[in-house]
Specification:
alpha+beta; three-stranded antiparallel β-sheet; 5 strands
């Protein structure tokens, strides 16, 4: 229904079942993006996991800000939409996103600012099809083109300009969930803070 193509869900399930039936197979987990369209039945992904042998389920809210996303998407998901899924996960013994991240997702769904350190900055970047480079997905402004001879200078200047990302206080970051990058699991937040302190010193 969400993808707009009949039969695609059944095909995906059949493919998963075939993969998991093999004696040796890669690690498999179910990633569930929380949308307006599925907010009423998030628990169904837990039921699917139980049917497939209790595969890990990772919940993430839809990202509507930043490069390549639709800022006009009218996200309207009650923060308690996850409660039934969390309850069923405990009932069936299905491992899911940590409760720390569940709480942060609820903050995001309520529109509350997320002041958390990002550990993608200085480590990842986004390059568009024409070579334009962004220091991360959240910041729409391009810092230059990777094909330009002076790109190295532009990149280092951009790191200094946007260093507030490292402390999570840059305005664009306050309402950007971006999965594990912005919503860290238990124990990871402190590690990221320490790593980012070193990054700030180097910048």
């Amino acid at each position: 229904r969400i993808r707009g193509k009949n039969g695609i869900h059944a095909q995906a399930i059949a493919g998963l079942q075939l993969l998991l039936s093999r004696p040796v197979h890669p690690h498999v987990e179910l990633d569930c993006t929380i949308l307006n369209e599925n907010r009423e039945n998030l628990e169904s992904i837990i039921e699917l996991s139980a049917q497939l042998g209790k595969i890990f389920v990772d919940f993430d809210p839809v990202q509507i800000t930043g490069v390549g996303n639709n800022p006009d998407y009218p996200l309207s998901v009650p923060a308690n939409s996850l409660d039934k899924a969390v309850f069923l996960a405990k009932k069936y013994g299905v491992e899911i996103t940590s409760m720390e991240r569940i709480q942060l997702i609820k903050h995001y769904l309520r529109g509350e600012p997320l002041v958390y350190p990002c550990y993608s900055y200085c480590k990842d970047l986004l390059i568009d099809p024409l070579g334009g480079v962004h220091t991360c997905w959240t910041i729409r402004d391009s810092v230059g083109n990777i094909l330009d001879s002076d790109f190295s200078t532009a990149w280092h200047n951009a790191l200094k300009k946007n260093k507030a990302v490292l402390t999570g206080t840059k305005p664009e970051c306050l309402h950007s969930p971006f999965s594990h990058v912005r919503l860290p699991d238990k124990g990871l937040a402190e590690i990221v803070k320490k790593a980012n302190a070193v990054r700030l010193h180097c910048i």
